[in-house]
């Protein structure tokens, strides 16, 4: 069985109270929760938070929520504590970003599809890069793969370098992928990675998944066609509303 966990912190340096902002009549968190519950792959969806205001809100709209400690450095650690509080045994956890109010249920199902045989340790998603601008955007994390579509490395820089080709044409000569940050963890692996110390590569790139690679864990990467539309700061709300109106 697979459980979907939505980590939701109230405190945020850039956007305090972000999970409870209103987006066209519903909070962002409620929209994420409702979209996640439409997934065919998830046996349960639960919010993991450290704030009573979020607990009260999720309870009011009929969702399931667990209270976790405030000190967790990442959503991965919060997912582990939430999993430990659940009574049912789940083989996998999918960490669903709480700041993507219009996540498609089919995107969750795409990721879940590679978990069926139980051998996958960790999984995440990626989308093809189709322009020079996206490829060289340091805000977009690129991923390099082995022949089994497992990650070799993630970087904010462009990898691989293509010798003898104009940079503006690199995306034409090589199939590049950028990372879409939804993760699936096998439950026993989640327990192992949550206890790992911060690694040198993780510190350098500020990418948590490099800690897992540096410690020998395998991350399966799944191609998705769905773009990621996150709300990181107040100005992003208007952009997301415009996207919603287009749909």
Task: Give the N-terminus to C-terminus distance in angstroms.
Answer: 32 Å
Quaternary structure classification: single chain
Helix fraction bin: 25-40%
Shape: globular
Give a short account of the largest sheet.
9 strands, mixed
Into which percentage range does the β-strand content fall? 15-25%
Mean pLDDT reading: 92
The SSE string, one letter per element, is EEEHEHEHEHEHEEHEHHHEH
Structural class: alpha/beta
Number of strands: 11
Count of runs of 4 or more consecutive helical residues: 10
| Rg, nearest Å | 18 Å
Low-confidence stretches: none
Descriptive terms for the model:
247 residues, alpha/beta, two-stranded antiparallel ribbon, globular
Provide structural commentary.
Helix content is 32%, strand content 22%. The chain has helices at 28-37, 52-60, 75-85, 105-112, 132-135, 170-173, 187-194, 200-205, 209-214, 235-246, and strands spanning 2-8, 22-23, 26-27, 44-49, 65-67, 92-95, 122-128, 142-145, 151-155, 177-186, 219-223. The strands form 2 sheets. Strands 1, 4, 5, 6, 7, 8, 9, 10 and 11 form a 9-stranded mixed β-sheet that branches. Strand 8 and strand 9 (151-155) form a beta hairpin. Helix 3 (75-85) crosses helix 7 (187-194). It is globular, with a radius of gyration of 18 Å. The mean pLDDT is 92.
